[in-house]
Amino acid sequence: MKRPGYDGGSTLIRPYLSGTMAEKSITQALRNPTPVRQPARTAKAPVQAGEAADRMDTSFLETLIGYNARRAALVVIAEFLPRMAQFGLRPVEFSVLTLIGHNPGITSRQLCATLDILPPNLVGMIKHLEKLGMLEKRDHPTDRRAQGLHLTETGKATLPLAEQTASAIEIDATSRLSQAERKTLISLLRKVYLPAA
Fold first, then answer.
1. What is the Cα–Cα distance from 170 to 83, expressed in whole angstroms?
2. Confidence (pLDDT) at 137
3. What is the pTM for the complete model shown?
């Protein structure tokens, strides 16, 4: 039996449902829920270079001449750069110096054709060799539009030492090859880039 004045408790409950701080807090919480904190991620151990290399499948690349030639060239260059620094020469600059030394009076056009490099790139190399005091330009005997390139006394003194160093670098970089294998490798590479006879 319902008691007089008793409304089943709604009078007691209503203050908690309308216009109270509790309602405002609940509404605010629903509108702006507190972000759920994600569990901290465990840092992954960095992959070591050796481990990464061990995981790589390079079997297809190893069938390509270009890939193998490039890898072999990098081994030689790694030896070349520090040991030729005493002469101030990088690989292509050494090639330019060698060609001029063995072909006095060679022109820039001939150098570009022989080494397959662009004229703008050669200009910087020529200037570098001139700055080192190894190179000088002279009037060409038959072509007034061209200048012949010659080694100075400094260049002539430097070239034999640089060539000896380059030969030693090649031997050290290919120490796992016999002399016969080294000659065979050079012969095969020349067959690739030289025009057919």
1. 11
2. 94
3. 0.70
